[in-house]
Every structure is written in structure tokens, then in C-alpha cells.
Amino acid sequence: MRSGLILALVRVALMTALQYRASFLLEFFVGVGTTASVVLPLVFVFDHTASVAGWSLHASLLVAAFFLVLQAMVGGLVEPNLGALVEGVRSGQLDYLLLKPPDAQFVASFQRVAPARLWDLLGGAIVGAYALSALPTPTAAGVVTAALLLFAGLAAVYGLWVLVICTSFWFVRVDNLRYLLGAVVDAGRWPVSIYTGWVRIFLTMVVPVALVTSYPALALLGRLDTGLAVQAVVVAVGMLVVSRVAWVQALRQYTSASS
Amino acid sequence: MIAAARAFPTLLRIAVAEMVAYRAEMVIWILTATLPLVMLALWNAASAGGPLDGFGQADFARYFAVTLLVRQLTGVWVLWELNQQIRTGALSPQLLRPMNPLWWQFAETIAAIPWRLLVLGPVLAGVALWRPEIVFVPTLAAAAGFAVSLVLALLVAWFVQCLFGILAFWFDQSLGLFQVWFFVWALLSGYVVPLPLLPTSVAAVATYLPFHASLGAPVEVLLGFAPVGPTLAIQAAWVAVLGAATYLTWNAGLRRYGAVGA
Amino acid sequence: MIEVRNLTKTYRVPLKAPGFVGSVRSLFSRAYKDVEAVKDLSFTIQQGERVGFLGPNGAGKTTTLKMLAGLLHPTSGAVTVLGARPQDRDSAFLRQITLVMGQKQQLLWDLPPRETFELNRAMYGIPRAEFTNTLDELISLLRIEPLLDKPVRNLSLGERMKCELAAALLHRPRVLFLDEPTIGLDVEMQVQVRQFIAGINQRFGATVLLTSHYMQDIAALTPRLLVIDEGRLRYDGALTELAREMAPERRVVVRSVEPALVPLGFVEDGGKMIASVAPEAVNAILARALAAVPLAELGVEETPLEEVMGRYFRKEAAAPPPEGAA
To answer: How many Cβ atoms are within 10 Å of B62's Cβ, its own excluded?
Structure first.
């Protein structure tokens, strides 16, 4: 049943997108541009050196590929919905959503799809395939761990988004905080080893974008030690729990305040 | 034009008041445009083993710190304003007044600069604390050249966004088009790669393009690896060309607005 | 000083084919449809007049007003306002007009209204002394003194409307275009706004053109009425004439339910008894009603304007006028 709903949603989104034919072409070019803007800096850097913080070009491109997947997920699924939530708070339309029976968080999260971001997904797949072509084939365990970590990482980022959105329930003036989150997440496009000290800790625990980009790459390269993998899952779970608590709190406060 | 110049100080004062009212949002917007720091992290790690083409870690730190500064000081958002106003018809009340609405937008752009400096101060101080050797005192000639170049760069960025914003009179997709422009700009302006580190043929062409004129030019003038005279000349040429284009297309855009209604 | 001859405005609207296949097809070709928003409008308005535009939703009233203000360009026909072509948007022209749209605001949202006033002063180039005089006058007419230093987002809709009006009049325009100025306001505020507009007409000598849904706006403010329906001018004349023609009868109203009045021709309507009679017959029926129910509260009303207009449009629907207006 759910898959039928999702199919219908995608169909509607595609139809809307097709209606603006120039948009369709443009989104393709934006997709190409996004992929290029992530890949080309790396290409330029590796023009001058063979290794950066122990990572080769192809290994770094693997991280870039995962980053593109992250961008596609966040831009295509998370942002349209949670962004709309923020608008809903501003305009008061959130009340209509809250009147509906299913868990508000889930419904809120997946009503909209931005199909344009599919190009990023495609870009990520192409870059990833290219990167793997010059790297030793990953083991089955590596692939499974990578998939697991990717999923955990995406969940963590999703949780973080929810947390940030909750702030706009309390402070409507800072509802553009999600753009700042986007800017910080941008730091995940490079292998996390290039960052040192507190910055690296920040990017693995607080804004755990490294979980989505670097860790799965490490898993595929066979360089991930189990400690890190466990840490990743713990952080992801922690993030989801915290965000869930914050969401419930925020809703409670919102409904009691706006009556 | 003269009337606008006489009114501008008042516009600026009110715009400053507005920025104060928007300060929380402003601070966040300013913090969002910090990609140079992300780039710095990469180049810093890349040059850990030794300078790349003459750029050592300190050079990269200095370069990207200045790039961040210039990026902020030439920060423009009129594209989004125009898009929204044209789409929603909020442009109409502004068109009833005998002054081009772009003047007010420009006042807001300038009024944001003090905030940018305020927020950037600690950030740049942080970078300087991390790499104290990047702090330097520019020569008088470099500083003067930088000041002029900065103003020209701002004007180039301004007119570019105006032009894309004016496209919104005809197309829904001007934001998307600007995104494509932005990708090219990031690569050819010196934003993600210092121009000297681009492949030589690419760098040679990029020096003449408007992308570089709106960011890389003032950075390189201040740091002394671009000749002041030719750089300013190229920038001034772009200001003239883009300014004229803006003037012409704005009026065409207004005719279109009047034809299709809002 | 406002001259309109055969004014026409036509929009080309793209047609969207339904369904998924239709959407794909639209990637390759587009069909268009012509929508006539305003057709062949002609009228003249003199300096100092107060004129109302009345008509159903989508009739073309706002479109006409926007063409008079220069925001929209006519497809054909001629418009002259104060000797200028509005669409040229001459600086001199813009300084003499103002357009207040109920839905679109010019006040800066996060700042007090005073700042928007200052902004307008700078933009219109109003000398300081003249500005202070006009502003003081507007403040006292609108009674907005206590609102001037509160951020606009903290004001109620009515308070905001009053400040919008002040902002729109700082440059003492000779022509005042108002598009649905009382929409969304409570009754008391509507009355205040109407009084203010009438005051501006008197004190500034400004010509007033007003579009509205609310009959009371028209009745209270504008002795001359232009009825626009489906883009065409249907009536141009005094409101009283139209009322007399469409609804000559009077309504005698008794404000309580009195069964004794039914044989006299009264009908119960929401706690009141109403009889519709020709003006000549009013006295007779009043006498008979008082005889039947001595202590009743009696009143004589004209047919409500809604009723008048309703009849007018029904008549128009039954027999549309020939090409070219009233």
C-alpha cells in the first residue's frame, strides 16, 4: 500500500516537473554542475599531488560519490519536507498537519519528493563506479558494512535535520538555520582525515556527515576498523533518539502555545 | 539618477535599521557562505607534504582567508529578492514610486556589510590564530588597488545577479540558471582553486571572465600576484558591459511585467 | 483628467492538457487561449470626482485600475491620466498618483511605520517641512499616533491599513486609486477608512477611484458608479439613478414578529416583518401597520444595495447590452 502511495507521489512530482519543460533541461544541467563542483576541486588538487592525508584520488572520489548520494537524499527527500514544515510554522498551516492521525513526524517527512535531485544520485553512482574501477574490489563484508553505515549516516543526518527544524518551532526568526546546517554538511565532501582535532570530532559526532561519506568509503576500501563502525552506529542511534525527543517536545510546546 | 543619489543616504540609514531588525537571520546567512574554509581544509592537507606550485600551507591559509573576506564583502542577494517580487507581484507597489526599486535593494546590500565584518572578525581571527604567519601588512599601492578592485567586484556581482533576476520577468527558472552560473563561477573565479593552480590555459582565459572579476581579482591584487592596472581595467570593462545590459533589460522586463500582469 | 477610450486588455494563457501523456506532449508544443480581462472600456473622470468601480469577482476592476496606474499595459485603446500615458511611468506622473492595494503592502515589515514614511519621503523627494505638515495632518486624520513606533508586524490588519494609507498619501497625490481598501477590516475600521478617504477628497482635492465588493463603500463614498462585468462597462452614472431604476420600492420593516401583519402583506424574515411597497404606498401601509400593532418598532428602508445590484446583474444576464457600454 505504501509503495503504491510512493509511486503516486513520484508520478505527481514528475508530471509537475514535466510541465515546466525548460526546468527539466535545467535540472539536468544543475545536476551535472553539482557533480562537477564536487569532483573538479579534487581533480585540481590531485593535479598537484598524489596523496592527500593518505587518500588517493580515486579513494577521495569514492567519498565524493557518497557525498552526492547524501545531497540527493537530503535535497530530494529531507529538505522539501522539513523545509515545508518550517513554512508551515510560519504560516500556521502546520495545524492542519497535526490534526491528522498518523504519526506527525513520519507523514511530515515524506509527503514531498523533489525528483530533480535524482541527477545527483546518478552523478554519485557514476563517480562511485569510476572510483571503484581503479581500486581493489571491495569484499562482500565491506559492501554490507558500507551499506549499513550509509544507512546509519543518513538516519543520523535526518535526525539532525529534525533537531534543527525543531529550533524554528521555538525561534521563528532563525528558521534559516537549516541552510547553515547545509553549509556545515558541505564539509563532508572530503575524506574526514584531512580535518584534524576538534573539527574531525565535530564532523563525526555532532554533525556526523563523515558517517555518510567517509566511513562507507573506508568500509569499501577495507580500511574501516570495527571500533569506528560501532561508534558510527551509536552516534546514529543517539542522534535519532535526541531528535525524536526534541520533536515531541517541540510539538507539545507548539500546540499548547498556539491555542 | 541625481534624485536617487540625493535620496540614497536616507535609504542606506533605513536599510541599516532593517538589518538590525533582521540580525539573527543575517548572522546565519553570513555564516552559511563559508565554503572557502572547507576548501582551505583540503588544500591545507594537500600541501602538508610541501608547497604545491609555490603555494605552501601558509599561502593557502592567507589566500582563502582573504577570499572569504572578499566573498562576504561582495555578497549580493538581489536575485532572490527580484525573483520573489516578480513572482508574487510584490514588485508592483515598488513600481508606483518614482525611483527604481533596485536602489533600495542596493542600499540593503551595502547596509549588510557592517554585519558581515562583525561576524567575519572572529572567524578570520580564528584562522590567524591557527596560522599566525598569514598576518601581513599590504603596501599602500596594494591596499588602494584592493579598495578599488573590491568596489568593482561588488558591482560586477551586483549586475550579474540583477541580470539573472531580470530573467525572472520571462522565465520561472532564473534561480536554476544562476545555480549553473554559480558552479562555473566557483571553479573559474578563484573561489575553490586559486587561479595560479588551475591548468595554465584555463587560468589564462579565466582572468578575462566576469567570474574572476567578481572575486579573484581583488584577492590577487591585495596579495600581490595580479598586476593592478590590467586587473582593474578588466573589471571596469565588465562593470560597464553588465551595467548597460542591466539597464536595457530592466526596461524590457518592466514592459513584459506590464504586459502579463502581476 | 482621466480619459479612457476603448481600453482593452487581453491575456494569453497557456493551456495545460490533462494527464501524464498531456504533460509529456506539452514538452514539445504549447496551445494558448486568449482571455479578455477588459474589453472596450470608455469613460471620463473629472478632477475631484469620487468614482466607484463595482462588479463581480474577476470582472476586470482591478485590471482597469492597474492600467490607470501604469502597472499594466493595455493591449489596445488609450488611457490618459493627468495628461500622461500611465504606462510610460514618468516620474512626474508617478508623483501625482497613488495606488493602494488591499492585498499588497509597501510598509517595511520589521520596522515601525515611521521608517517607511521616511523612505517614501526620500523616494518622492518631498521637502522636509512639507513632509512634516502632511504627515501631521495624516496622523491626526487617521489617528495613528500611538502606532508610529511599533514594528509593522505587531500591528493588527486595520492598523496596518491605516498606516498604508498614510504612507500612500505623503506625497499629496492628485489621484488616489484604491483597490479593495476595506477588505478584511472590521466594521468600525471600514467606517474610519471611508471617512478618511472622503476627507482626503475634500482636503487635498484628490480624485478618488475605488474598487470594492462592499456596497457600503460605494454607497458611502462614491456618488458615481461604474459597473464592470466580464470586462465590459455596463453602467456609468449616479448610484441613486441605478437604485431608483432597479429597485424603486421601499421596504417597511417591523422589528418584531407580529402575525397580525401578515394579512397586510408583511412576510417574516429572521425575526422581522418586511413588506415591499411602491414609494407612493408607504404612508398607507405605515398607517395600517401602526393600527394593527400600535407599539411596534417601524422603519422604512431602501432596498439594500446588494439586492439592487443582484437585480441589475440578473437583468444583464437575461438581456446583455449592445456592444459598447451603458
So the answer is: 23
Question: Looking at beta carbons, which residues of chain C come within 8 Å of A11?
Answer: 20
HSE value, Cβ hemisphere, 13 Å, CA-based, for B200 = 1
The CA-atom distances, in angstroms, between C67 and each of C53, C62, C75 are: 14, 9, 10
Q: Which residues of C touch A18 (CB under 8 A)?
A: 23-24, 26-27
Domain boundaries, given as residue ranges, for chain B: 2-256
> What does DSSP assign to residue C304?
P
Which residue in this structure is represented by grid cell 580515486?
A58
Of A18-22, A136-140, C24-28, C163-167, minimum mean pLDDT range: C24-28
Q: Tell me the residues of chain B between 159 and 178 that have a Cβ less than 8 Å away from chain A.
A: 171-173, 176-177
ipTM at complex level: 0.89
Q: What is the CATH number of domain C46-243?
A: 3.40.50.300
DSSP run (H or E) holding C268:
strand C267-269
C119, B10: Cβ pair inside 8 Å?
yes
CB burial string C119-138: b at 16+ within 10 A, e below: bbbbbbbbeeeebeebbebb
- What would the grid cell of residue C117 be? 514614511
Task: Answer whether C27 touches A (CB < 8 Å).
Answer: yes
Cβ neighbours for C179, distance < 8 A, ≥ 6 positions apart: C61, C62, C65, C99, C100, C101, C102, C103, C211
Size of interface A-C (CB pairs under 8 A): 13
Contact (CB<8Å) A187/B43: no
Q: Are C169 and C98 in contact (CB under 8 A)?
A: yes
- Is the CB of residue A189 less than 8 Å away from at least one CB of chain B? yes
pLDDT in the model for residue C105: 84
Query: Helix (H, G, I), strand (E, B), or coil: what is residue C79?
Result: strand
Q: Which triple of cell numbers denotes residue C311?
A: 437585480
> Phi and psi at residue A48, in whole multiples of 5°?
-105, -15
**Please, which residues have CB within 8 angstroms of residue C63's CB and are 6 or more apart in sequence?**
B261, C9, C37, C38, C72, C231
Q: Closest Cα of chain A to C13: distance in Å?
A: 14
- Which residues of A lie closer than 8 Å to C, measured between beta carbons? 11, 15, 18-19, 21, 24
C188 touches chain B (CB under 8 A): no
- Measured in degrees and rounded to the nearest 5, phi and psi for residue A203 equal -80, -5
- Cα dihedral sign, B184-B185-B190-B195: positive
Q: Where are the domains of chain C?
A: 46-243, 248-302
Spatial contact of A200 and A192, defined as CB atoms under 8 Å apart: yes
Chain A residues 224-253 with CB within 8 Å of chain B? none
C135-191 confidence digits (pLDDT tens): 999 999 898 999 999 999 889 888 999 999 999 999 999 999 999 888 888 888 888
Residue found by looking up cell 541527477 in the block: A119
Q: What is the DSSP letter of C28?
A: T
